[in-house]
Structures are given as C-alpha cells and as structure tokens.
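Explain this protein:
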Amino acid sequence: MYKAIALTTLLTLSSAIALPQRNRGGNSNTGGAGGGKKQATAFQQAAQVPQGVTQATDGSTILDNTVMINGLPIRFKISAPADQFLVGSGVPGAAATSANGTLGANVLLHGDGGQSFFDMPNQAVQANTMGVALLAPNDNLFWGGGSGLDRTDGVAHAQAVNDFVQKAMPKIVAMNASNVVFTGVSGGSLLMSGFFIPGQMQNFPNSAVELNCGALAPQVAFADAATVMNQTRIHYQSTQSELASLQDSIPQAIAAYEKLAVAAGLSTDQVNQMQTVDNTPQGGHCEFDGKDFVTGVQTMLTSFSNVMQGGNGLVAGIGAPSKGQVANGVVGNEKLKFAAAKKREAESMLQMRWAQDVVEGDDFAVLACDRSSCE
C-alpha cells in the first residue's frame, strides 16, 4: 500500500476526508426501522482508497492527494514526469523550482460514481500534455451534484475546477498555463458543457473540450461567448445506444453551441473546424469501443491528441461500424440518429466498479484492496 505524502499546508491528508461527511447533494442510506448502520456514501468509500505516489502507464509519476478549494475537498491526480513536480511537493525526484513549465494539462472530469477518476485514462503524457483528474466533491461523486440532467451544484463545482487549475496546480507542478485542455465523461461532460464552458472557459484561451457520452446546452449566463466560441475546440462523442435522456440533451447542446458560434461571427467552415461530433460506434453509454464503459473511455483518451490537439481525427480501436474518423463538423449533423437505449443502462449514468475494492466496516466502508495489492 502506498504511503500518503505531506505537501504543504495547502493540501490535506487523506485521513481528513475519511470521516463521515456532511451531505453535499446525495443522501446516505440507513438501516431499517431501528435506524441501523449508515451505508457509506461513494465519497466516504473513495476516501478509503489510498492517496500517494504511484507510477503511470508511461512511466510518469502520479500524485494523488487532496486540496481544499472554496471549502470543497478536491481530490486530484496529476500524472507527469517526476522532475516536473515542484520541489517541496513530496514527490520523489521532484526538481521544478518554478510554476512555469513546458507541459500542458488535460483535465478530466469523471462520470457519476467516479470510475474514470480511479482509472485515470488520461494518465500518459500525450502531445506534451500531462494528465490531471479531479474527483467530484459530492456524496455520490456526481460532478455538479443533483442527479440526471439536473446539476444543482454546477456553478460551485465549475468554479472549483477553475480555481484548482489556476490557483492550486501552480503550487504543485510546473505547467504551461496557456495550454490547458479538458475532458468530460458522462456526468463530467454535463458539468463541462452546462456550466464550465459558459461560466469559466474565458479563463482558458485557445483550449479544447472533449465531451464524451454527455452534453448540456449552457445552463448559466455565458461569459464572453464571442471570444470563447472563436478559440475553443469542442468535440461531442457518443454511441448509437446512448442513454435515452442524453439522446435528447446532446443534440440540444450541439445546436446551442453552434448557434453561439454563428452569433460570434464564425462561418460554416469555421464552425465545422471548431465543433465536431460523432456517434457512429454501436454500443451503450460510453462504450466507444463497442464493448465496455471502461475500455471505451480509454479508447477515446488514448487518441485524445488526434481528435483535440491538431491530429488527424482518427480514433484507434473505436467500435464498428465507425472507420475511426470522428471529427465531423456539426453543421448538418445536429440531429443525431440513435438506436434504442439498452434497458440495463436506461435508468442511470452511474459507474462505480472501483468500489468493489472496499467492503463494509463498522461505521463505513474500509479498504479491502488498493489498485495493486490486498491486505
């Protein structure tokens, strides 16, 4: 089991979030009429998965820790070469002495339940871009809180993501603050499109956002839409058998953002260059490889630079009948054609396979196995 590390007073120890938390948008289950033992929330279960330092798939170093942002505990993973972490971060081999670095950052917001935070499919450095994943500060691990398409804490969570990147990261790792891009997965895509892009994207010039298996039209007033639409690359990726609710909301988001781009003065060709969409793979929610949620999300993130950072738009391993080319302009493709949603997926976006690593204890879930060993 890896050891938690001390960073600075900015960062909290993992034990600080291991205690039962005040409800942040989800209700804990309780026992029967006698008011038995409380069921651990997803947030409490996540707190039992160790934080610390591990190795990424490409040999980079992953730092997993927690920082308080605007009163919210934001657990993060940053994957970068060890020497890019700031001296004093506690990372073995850290050598950076300035917040200014050459690596950009791809910041990922997971889907409901936190699966992609623990998998961290963006952990390998790609196109000179480090991977970053953030865990939702919500009992259910829902970005934006609430449930379904109703993200009641969207404004606060979007602000926390902005402030983490702009205020906390420069104290942890050297980065190119002018090269920050974003990935949403399912519920994370709802926060990105519904709240973060309209409310915060003006702070990230020349950025890109990949919205995987989810999207909302803007839910808040748009800050400087003309500037954001002219310099933000957006890609919507879905599948044929997407969840029923998302079969409605994704096309609505596409139409809304296309309209904003036209209002910002972009021509049809410019809109199609900046905003693209694809839902050709057969499969259910996030099953971009036609097989599975986890491997499907990994498929998109492995080809992130091809789609979002000036590549050829090809995704290796994407599910049939797609030929791999996903960078299709949105103009004329706003009304996506879907197949029927699978019954087993129709009720929820929740994915919590990582929680199989914890078991019930006297008060709440305790660790049974970490990602590499059991004890």
User: Anything to note?
Assistant: DSSP finds nine helices and 13 strands in the chain.
